[in-house]
Every structure is written in C-alpha cells, then in structure tokens.
Design goal:
Nucleotide_cyclase, elongated, 16 strands, 394 residues, alpha+beta
Length: 394
C-alpha cells in the first residue's frame, strides 16, 4: 500500500475534492484512489442521515468498475429486521466501529455475513462518521483480499474517514438546507433563497396561473373536533391537492389555515399560457376527485369533505416580504387578491371550481358563464365561470 497516495487523497479531501463535480463523483473518486493506492476494496457504502419529513437517510454504494448508486430510505427502515440485525445499528446508536471478519465465528451474529461470504468477501468493517453537530452517520468497507484487511490498511481507512466525514458533512448541510427550503417554501423559492435572494425587497414580477383553495366548513369542523384531529384532517386534505399540483408543474407557496396558495409559472417568451392553464385544470379535476373520495372516521361517524377552488391568471410580485429579520418568500398583487375574492364567490355559489374570465378565455371549453359579480376592492365587476359539468351543491 502506497502511503504517499493515501496522503494525497486525504489532502484532496481536505481541500474540498474540487475536481469532483458532485457528491457521488467525490465518493467514487475517493474509492478509486484508495484502490489505486493498493488497498483492494470490494463494496463500500456511505449512509448519511438527513433532516427530511419523509426520508430517514441517503445511501451511496460503490463497487469496482461501476457508477456510484445513490438511494434513499424512509423511516420504516428503523423497524426492519435487516437494519436491527445489521452491524450499522451499533454504529448509529453508539458511534463505535464494528468489524465482521467472515472467517470469525463471532461474526455469524450478523445475517449480512452469509451474504458477504457468498460474494467472496473476506472482511467487513463499519466506521462511524461523527459530524460536528453530534449526529452519527456510517460507512462500510469490504474486501475480498485473502485474510481480510491488514492493520495498516485499517489504519489507512480510519485516516481517510476523518476528512471524508468533514466533506460529507458540508455536502449534507447544503443538501439539508436545500431540502428544508423546498419543504417549507417550495422549489423555486428555495432555489432563489440559496442563490442569494435573501434581502427584504428582493422581488421579481412573473406571469402565473394562480390556485387558491380552502376547505368548506372548516370553522365548524375546528369548533367541534379536537385540535389533533383537525390537523390530521388538514394533512390528508392537503395531500389531495399537493400531489396533483406538483405533478402538473405548480408550486405550493403557502398554507393559510385551511387555505392553499399555489402558482403555475408561465413563460412569457415561450407563450405557453394555454399549456400551463390546461395543466392547472387537470390538477383541479384530480384534486376535486381526491377530496370527494376523502373520508375520515370519528367513532361511528364518517366525515366527508368538500373544497372550493378559484383559478386566475395574471402578473404577480414574487419575492421577500416581511419585517426586520423575519421574512416570507411569497407572492402578492391584484391577481392574487382577485383569486381570493373569486374563492369566496365559489363558496357563495356552492361551487367547487370557479375561474376568472382571464383564465377561462385561455383554457377554453368546459366552462359555463355564472354571471358578473362585484369584487370588493376592485373598481369593476368580474365575470365568473364554473365547470360546465358541475351544478351548484346544496
């Protein structure tokens, strides 16, 4: 094993692995450099826990001559027998090394050893990655070398793991920030914030289809049900819309109690307003079906739900608004205000989906003219359209 190559590798990692274009390339190049230094690796894994509402962690798997595979695992893995009986459980829980030499009878307590033996692996070691914040992550290293890893090779791996941990932490923090921003403010807003658009007043104008909805009867629902139940219902209700909105190119900007504000950006240079509005209408149809099918059992009573949705299209101001150091990345403008007024009209007319004349004129067909209505705060009445197949509900 060439110790000078190991030193060059650690120096490269400490310097930020600048020649690697991504985290997967960095991990792949690290493993390849270790092999080039004379340490015969077979299968190597990185397991990084993450701060995400649905994803427990990400794994990166390297094998000689193959691209690095990246995957995610959800929180169910914590209760799976494979994980509970894995050497990694001790790494995550105690932050200790775990070695399993295939020829050591004591290693048979790990079911994975039988799989490794079938592959021709002779040695396995799991090493903790200790982040500065105290969180514990893990790496696993295997070899087919007769007799397993030597003491010198294990020392080299431990030496490499230290800078590998630091650069993995930096990548993870960046990914976590991006993930949290996507979760709480949306993809486009998250990209802008990470890109430096963080000062109050940083805004831009864009044309967009606007989606504004709320849950019918929410006030009485909140009054007669426990708060925990109401939260559970709201989460199910929002699930009925968010999947369709994202599927068709929209972005949820804000939840306001039972209200949901989403936008579908329109590229004015491409002129794709008709295509975008058609996608919005498809999302509206899918959401309407999902909400209609939604049920919630409370004792012997099965609750059913209805919602109202207003669709409009127009220019919005999109960016940072707020006071002092507490900002919100949202959209404002007369078009948003009009959508909010239209949603109230939908409620008065007992309609599920209504649209402004601007939206209906772009996305033609399937609309019935519901008449003109005065709009609070606007100088002239607005003609409102409803889905032609939908009659007013009592």
């Amino acid at each position: 094993m060439d110790t000078s190559d190991i030193q060059k590798l650690t120096d490269w990692l400490i310097d930020g692995a600048r020649s690697a274009a991504s985290s997967t390339h960095m991990f792949g190049e690290t493993c390849e450099r270790i092999v080039a230094a004379g340490l015969p690796l077979w299968r190597v894994g990185l397991f990084i826990r993450t701060l995400h509402p649905e994803i427990y962690g990400r794994n990166f798997i390297w094998k000689p001559g193959a691209e690095v595979e990246m995957g995610t695992v959800d929180f169910q893995i914590l209760n799976s027998p494979d994980f509970q009986n894995s050497p990694l459980i001790a790494v995550f829980q105690q932050g200790i090394e775990v070695r399993a030499r295939v020829d050591d009878p004591a290693s048979s307590r790990f079911p994975i050893v039988a799989e490794l033996r079938a592959e021709g692996v002779t040695d396995y070691i799991a090493l903790p990655l200790l982040f500065i914040d105290g969180s514990i992550h893990a790496s696993s290293w295997t070899t087919k070398q007769p007799g397993g890893f030597t003491d010198a090779q294990l020392a080299a791996l431990r030496r490499i793991v230290t800078p590998l941990t630091r650069i993995s932490e930096i990548v993870t923090l960046t990914r976590t920030a991006s993930s949290l921003l996507d979760t709480y403010v949306g993809n486009r807003a998250g990209e802008r914030i990470l890109g430096g658009q963080i000062r109050r007043g940083h805004t831009e104008t864009m044309n967009a289809a606007i989606w504004l909805s709320d849950l019918r009867g929410f006030t009485s629902l909140s009054d007669r049900l426990p708060a925990e139940t109401v939260v559970d219902i709201l989460n199910l209700y929002f699930d009925c819309q968010v999947a369709a909105i994202r599927k068709h190119g929209g972005e949820v900007l804000k939840y306001m109690g039972d209200g949901l504000l989403a936008v579908f950006p329109i590229d004015e240079y491409v002129g794709d307003d008709q295509k975008v509005c058609s996608h919005v209408l498809e999302a509206a149809h899918e959401s309407r079906v999902s909400v209609a099918e939604m049920q919630y059992s409370i004792g012997d009573v099965v609750e059913r739900f209805r919602f109202g949705l207003a669709l409009h299209v127009g220019p919005i101001l999109f960016g940072n608004i707020g006071g002092g150091s507490r900002l919100d990345f949202t959209c404002i403008g007369p078009a948003v205000n009009l959508a909010a007024r239209l949603e109230k009209i939908a409620s008065r007319l007992h309609r599920t989906v209504v649209a402004s004349e601007g939206f209906a004129s772009i996305c033609r067909g399937g609309w019935s003219d519901l008449g003109e209505f005065p709009i609070a705060g606007f100088s002239k009445a607005e003609r409102v359209y409803g889905l032609i197949e939908e009659t007013s509900a009592d």
